[in-house]
Write a structure and sequence with these properties.
The protein is mainly α and 330 residues long. The chain is 60% helix and 3% strand. It folds into two domains: 177 residues, Orthogonal Bundle (Neutral Protease, domain 2), CATH 1.10.390; 99 residues, Alpha Horseshoe (Serine Threonine Protein Phosphatase 5, Tetratricopeptide repeat), CATH 1.25.40.320. Strand 1 and strand 2 form a beta hairpin.
Length: 330
């Protein structure tokens, strides 16, 4: 939670290897987009999260270099494109219309990643030098104020689109904000880091490379997640055991990596994870790291086991998590 001058951070970010610092960058970026300049209503949330995701990525570029920043863009963009296929078109607009719904029931990564891609698009079209001036002036102009999407559109029109005519039309900006999905010319960041991971994965799966020769010591958490998430969902249990022995994935102190591993293991019946999975589900309450696991457990015939774990874990969960997971078992 990005409280001004004091952010509260989930312990799942403290992985022991500084691999999850992008979340720290995100919450610190909220000092500007969210706390200094605040979205006026929940329907304007993208002004908060889209700008914050953009600034987060700029921080990551400054600290770790352009290659790492683009890799994170590519991962988020791929996730967004997959998500857009699964949710209702009206909920893929930046200026979301709640129509009386609980905001928590309507939100997804759309305001975060689509908002970020919109700002990346503007940066690419106008150039970073001009766009940085625009962003800084936006924060200065609306400091300690709440902003609606309509107000942002007017500010964008006056201070960027009309200031540098012929670059991006108002209609194009409105397409990004008010229309569902992604424009046809949306940025599509790519990174060969994942191609390299895929090459190593295929070499291992086909017996051309041993696990101990994979360059995992230099992998970021994103490369690890790409590796695990793109393994065959029906990977043989002997292969699962081999991976676990080589990299101690079941006992990983990195909650993101452990989550990806548990999702794979639940799906193909790798039973060795369950004592550690019990601790994972009981010891943390971050919804993105527990809700999909409960759904997967129910789907793959482990409902009774999952329900028993949930009964023990439920008192420690936030009410929002309780409500979400209650619905899974109901």
């Amino acid at each position: 939670m990005e409280n001004p001058r004091l952010s509260f951070i989930t312990p799942t970010v403290v992985a022991g290897d500084k691999s999850l610092v992008n979340l720290i960058a995100h919450e610190l970026a909220h000092s500007w987009s969210g706390n200094l300049v605040t979205n006026a209503t929940w329907e304007d949330l993208w002004l908060n999260e889209g700008f914050t995701s953009y600034v987060e990525n700029r921080i990551m570029e400054e600290v770790f270099g352009r290659e790492r920043a683009v890799m994170e863009q590519a991962l988020d963009a791929a996730g967004l494109r997959a998500l857009l296929k699964t949710i209702a078109a009206p909920d893929t607009r930046l200026n979301l219309k709640l129509n009386g719904r609980d905001p928590d029931d309507a939100f997804s990564s759309v305001p975060y990643t689509k908002g970020q891609l919109f700002l990346i698009y503007l940066e690419e079209q106008f150039g970073r030098e001009k766009f940085d001036v625009f962003v800084k002036e936006y924060f200065k102009t609306y400091a300690f104020k709440s902003v609606t999407t309509a107000e942002f559109v007017e500010y964008l029109k006056k201070n960027l689109l009309e200031k540098y005519p012929g670059v991006v039309s108002l209609e194009k900006a409105k397409e990004w904000i008010f229309e569902p999905g992604l424009p046809s010319d949306a940025p599509n960041p790519t990174s060969d880091a994942f191609d390299k991971v895929d090459a190593h994965t295929q070499a291992w799966l086909t017996g051309k490379q041993d696990l101990n020769s994979l360059p995992t010591d230099s992998w970021s958490v994103h490369e690890w997640l790409h590796f695990i998430n793109n393994l065959p969902r029906d990977l043989a249990l002997t292969r699962m055991s081999e991976l676990d022995k080589a990299f101690n994935l079941t006992q990983s102190t990195n909650a993101e990596r452990a989550f990806a591993w548990y999702m794979l293991a639940v799906g193909n019946g790798y039973e060795a994870i369950y004592p550690a999975l019990d601790k994972h589900l009981t010891g943390i309450g971050r919804r993105k790291l527990i809700v999909p696991l409960y759904k997967a457990l129910v789907k793959h015939g482990k409902r009774d086991w999952a329900y028993q774990v949930y009964q023990n874990a439920r008192p420690g969960y936030h009410p929002l998590a309780q409500g979400t997971i209650d619905a899974i078992f109901e």
